[in-house]
Amino acid sequence: MIEVLLALVPVGGPWIVGTATFLSCLALPVPSSLIMLTAGAFVASGDLSGPVTVALALAGALTGDQLGYALGRAGFSGKTVPTIKMTQFLTKAQILLARHGVWAVFLSRWLLSPLGPYVNLICGATRSSWWRFSLAGLAGESLWVGLYLGAGYTFAGHVEAIADIAGNLSGALSAGAVTLGLVLVLRSALRATGSHR
């Protein structure tokens, strides 16, 4: 499947990149980071237009974020899609958002990207400020698109190695952030229990 998607990048060009970033922001299993790395390599070789690729990647990501926010605002809940994985991600995203607000939105666009779609839903469901959500999303998505297309452009001959490193780092950081959030919640609960005694 991944090979087929990557083969479409030189054919469909920036439109494939924009579609991939859009779908990934809705928690669909699309390797958007790898597709952006590959597109960056094609930009470096002159096969794709850099400005158009950046514009469509960013437009796809921002549109996906806004749709996720709108779905959350319209009443989407984790119970609508009864999967254990989604429930876990929603819980983790809610903890991150409660602790760090706008920073959670910004960081979940690029550094903790597996949590991004769920942060979008929770921001909408909790009626978070749309302006703050949108501005933090714009800043984070711009960084995400710039980092991945830039890395693909810079390391055109080593795209697979860069993709492995980036995927492992993002997963480890997300797991660390969730663990830290759960430790803080547990510590608060223990303090509250101790104060009632």
TrEMBL record:
<keyword id="KW-1003">Cell membrane</keyword>
<feature type="transmembrane region" description="Helical">
    <location>
        <begin position="169"/>
        <end position="190"/>
    </location>
</feature>
<dbReference type="Pfam" id="PF09335">
    <property type="entry name" value="VTT_dom"/>
</dbReference>
<keyword id="KW-0812">Transmembrane</keyword>
<dbReference type="InterPro" id="IPR051311">
    <property type="entry name" value="DedA_domain"/>
</dbReference>
<dbReference type="GO" id="GO:0005886">
    <property type="term" value="C:plasma membrane"/>
</dbReference>
<dbReference type="InterPro" id="IPR032816">
    <property type="entry name" value="VTT_dom"/>
</dbReference>
<keyword id="KW-0472">Membrane</keyword>
<feature type="domain" description="VTT">
    <location>
        <begin position="30"/>
        <end position="153"/>
    </location>
</feature>
<keyword id="KW-1133">Transmembrane helix</keyword>
<protein>
    <submittedName>
        <fullName>Membrane protein DedA with SNARE-associated domain</fullName>
    </submittedName>
</protein>
